[in-house]
Amino acid sequence: MGDTTMDARTGDVFAATRRMMTVPTELGSDFARELRPRDWKGYTALILAWQVAASVCFYAIYAVTPFIRTQFGLSTTAVGFVLTALMLGYTACVVPVGRLIDRYGEGRVLVVGLIGLGTTTVLVIVAPTYPVLLAVVAVLGAFYATAIPGTNKAVFNTIPEERLNVSMGVKQMGVTAGSGLSSLLVPLSASRVGWEIAFLGAGVVAAAVTVGFRVCYDTAGSNTDDSDTSLRTHLGDSEYVVLVAAGFFLGAGLFTTVGYTILYVADGIGASSVFAGVTLAAAQATGSVGRIGFGWIADNVFGTVTTATLSLLAIQAGLSAILFAAIPLAETPLAALLLFALLGAFILGFTGIYYSCIGSIVPRDGIGSATAGGQLALNSGALVAPPTFGYLVDARGYDTAWTLLACTTSVALVLCALLLARRIVHR
């Protein structure tokens, strides 16, 4: 009898202990729920913050190249290999990461991705040799592979369809914002306290945003997929294949524009390097406006998401082709500034529409792998087109090189127009 009473009392103690341990957990869950966004604007801001923090870490590598060249005594070619390592790490991992996002949910993968970005950004500071630097930069690029498929899926999972394209455009603005911040802060830091402080700051910001994102985004409830959806599955869809092919040609125009605008305005037009930098900044600014503006048009002017985004992609590709062909006609720095500012709205402003279009033609549970394939196409254009452009500049001059980009974006126009016509016919 005494043993029975003792067991009962022991059971009461254990039950009370469990209740006491449960209360803080429940309070923590309630607190987290209170911090979560309540509407599409809040989720858009949260995803944008993640994208800005990630892009600051990634694009800081581009901004630091003059300083690591001096520190490690590198040739210009060796500096180029640093950027190649960054892009190869990114490109090699974007498809596998997209599949992980579909399987385990975008919330968890985005948290891990930003932790990795912040950590490797800080590790760049302590890289003792050039080979170690290449390895760290490649890993940094690999962690950035979580960005586009992860944030795209977050937009599709949290934003209502009638606000989808605007939210996607705002989120994509985080890429140019992060790039702009790093291009300003790294040189400024280098001139005053050393570029290492800027990298350390980027790591701290990444850590802070990781905590905020983990608390405010419902990572446990983010969409997961136990099916066998993968990039190979999407490649069986002819519409997806054509759209990704268009992305290759659009990506060629985008990354080549970013890579060669300053050189062309300085060498081809004869402007100062400061004016050439302002020209690229103007193109990036109008690109950000284009990402939001075309998203608003898609949400408010057209009908279905697929028809809207295909129509706008065709317009963006067509106008980009015309403007690329017109670049050789600009003879003064001011004319070049105006032309590149106009071009930026289209060739730098298409990515939000592109990802929305991909998401509208694939199953919702496969958006991670599908947009990863789309990003792979853009990156492939970035690996092929810039060196081809540079070769044409050396062999035939800038006029021929810009004509190449006019042709590539014309191919993208034809592919988008074919998809649009097919949609209209089968409506």
UniProtKB/TrEMBL annotation:
- Give the Major facilitator superfamily (MFS) profile domain ranges: 43-424
Q: Which Pfam families match?
A: MFS_1 (PF07690)
Q: Does the keyword Signal apply?
A: no
A molecular function (GO) term: transmembrane transporter activity
Q: Which UniProt keywords apply?
A: Membrane, Transmembrane, Transmembrane helix
Kindly list the residue ranges recorded as spanning the membrane. 43-62, 74-97, 109-127, 133-152, 197-217, 240-263, 269-289, 301-327, 333-355, 401-421
Which PANTHER family does the protein's record reference? BLL3282 PROTEIN
Q: Which PROSITE patterns match?
A: MFS (PS50850)
Q: Tell me what this protein is called.
A: Major facilitator superfamily protein
UniProt cross-references to InterPro entries, sorted A to Z: MFS, MFS-Transporter, MFS_dom, MFS_trans_sf
Domain of life, per UniProt, equals Archaea
